[in-house]
Please model this.
Amino acid sequence: MMPDETPNDGSDGSRFRTTLIRVIIVQVIALGLLLLLQLRYQP
Amino acid sequence: MHWINWLIVVVYVVWVVVDGIRKSKDTDTVSGYFLANKSLSWWVVGLSVMATQLSAVTMIGTPGQGATDGMRFIQLYLGLPLAMVILGVTIVPLLHGSGVYTAYEYLERRFDARTRSLTAFLFLISRGLSAGAIMAAPGIVFSAVFGIPLVWAVALVGVPTVIYTMIGGVQAVAWADVKQMVLIVIVLVAIMIVLIVQMPVNPDEALRIAGATGRLQVFDFSFDLSERYTFWSGMIGGTFLMLSYFGTDQSQVQRYLAAKSTDEARSSLLMSAYWKIPLQALVLMVGVGVFVYYQFVRPPLLYNPAQEAAVVAERGPAYDALQSEYAEAFTLREAAALAVADASGDDATAAMEVFVAREADIQTIRGEALAMVEDVTGEASGDTNYIFPRFVLSELPIGLAGLFIAGVFAAAMSSIAAELNALSTTSTIDFYRRWWKPDADDAHYLAVSKGATVFWGLFACVVATYAATLGSLIEVVNRFGSFFYGSILGVFLLAMIPGAKSRGAFYGLIIGMATVGFVAFGTTIEFLWQNVIGAVVVVLVGVPLSRIGGDDPVDAGEA
Model:
C-alpha cells in the first residue's frame, strides 16, 4: 500500500493550477525578454 | 591580492564555518543530524535548494560559458519550472510523508532491497563524480590566485568544508546556503554594474557587439538531437533532468525532507521555479559582458597562469612572437568592435562581418597558444574556466574581487557540503545500516556517517584534479548527471504506476542504464536527451516485466 497522503478535497488540484499559472506567467515574461533580446540584436 | 580582499575572504569563510558548527545543536541523533528534526522553514529550504544547485561551477564556469558561447546555455533550464510544479504534487508529498531518510529507502518499501541498493549505488557514483567536478571550480580560482598546484588549491576548499559538514550535518549545510545565496546575488549584480560603468560603449552598443558573434542567440528552435542546446532539448530533456535531479537525487531530496511540513517542502521548490531562469540569465549575461569588455581591454592570451608560465619557460621566444601577433590582432578587432558600435543600417552588416573575421583571427592565435600548452605540458589545454576568475582578479575594484572570491568559496562549500552530506547519508542509511549493522544506536551511525563524509571528501578531491581539464565545468557536471539521472527517474516513475513490481524496476533500471550507455558512447545524440531515453526505457521495460511471473514476496515493497 502506498504511504498515506493528505486527503484530496479538491483544494490541492486548484492550488496546483493556480501555482502552475503563476509560474508560467513569470517564466513567459523572463523568456519573452530574452527572446526580444535575441530578435533585436542577433543579425 | 590586496589585503582588503584577503580580509573579506577570511572573515566570510570563518563566519560560515563557525556559524555552521554553532548550528550543530540537536545533531546528536540520526533524525537531527540527517533531517534537522524536520524543523526548517520553507524559505531556508528554498534558498538551500537553490544554493545547492548554484555551485562555484555556476559562479566560474557559467560566465566562462557565456563569454565563449553566449546565452544559449540557458535553454538547459527551460524545463525546471515545470519540473518543480510536477514534483510538488507527486514525489515531494510521497517522500516527505513517508518518514524516510533517503529517497532510495522509499524504493525498498515500494519494490525491494535490491532495487533500493542498485539505485542508491548509481546515485553514489554519479554524485561522487559530480562532487569532484564541483570541487574543481574553486580549486581553479585558488590555483590562479595563489599560483599553487591545483591539488593544493582543491584541498584548501575541501578541508574546511568536510569539517563543518561532518560536525553540523544538514542544519549547518542549510544555513550556510542561506548566506551563500544572499552573497552570490549581491556579487553578481555588483559585477554587472561595474561592467556597465567601465565599458567604453553604452549597453545598446555592447549588446550589438555581443550579438554580432552570436552570443545573444538564446533560443534554437531546430529539432536536432545532435545539437547540444536547443529549445526542445531544454524543454523535454531538461524537464526530465530536473525532475530526476530535484526529485530523486539525495542531495536535493534531503533538503526538503528537512522541511517542517509537506506544504513548506513544496513551497521551497517553487522558489527555484520562479527564480532559477532569471538568475541563470544574469550569470550568463555577466559572461557576455566580460566578452564585450575584453574587446576594449586586452585579455591574456592564455587565461590559466600555470599553463602560461609553463609555456613561457619552455617556448619563450615562440610565445613572445605569438604575443606580438596577438597584440596586433587585438588592435584590429578593437577597431572593428568600435565600428560595429557606431554603425547603422547597411553599414552595420558590413561592420559585423569585419568584426566576426577579426574575432576568428584572435581565436586562431589562441588556438596556436593552446596547442603550445598541450605540447609543453602534455595535458588538455582548455582554459574556459579561468576566463572569469582572471577577469575578476585583474579588472574589478578592490573589495569586489574579495567578495567574488568569498562568493566562490561560499558557493563551493555549500554545494560540496550538500553533496558530501547526501553521499554520507546514503552510504550510512542505504548500505551500512541496511546491510551491515541494522541495530546499532544513533551514536554509532553518526560516527559512521562522519567517516563516510571524510571518505567522499577525499574521493571528490581526487576527481577534482582530473575534472578541471574536461572543459566547461558546468557542462561536465550536467553530462555526468545526465548519464544516470534518466534511468533513476524511471524507477521512481515506475513506483507511481500501480502494478509495477520489483522485477520490473530492477531489470528495467539495468536495461535503462545499458541503453543510455549505448546512446552516450555509440551515437551523436546530445546528453540532455539521455535523461528522456533512460526514463522512458525503464518504464517501457519495467511495466511489461512486472506482469511476468507472480507478485512480489510479502517482505518486499507492497503495491
User: Anything to note?
Assistant: The first helix of chain A runs from residue 11 to 41.
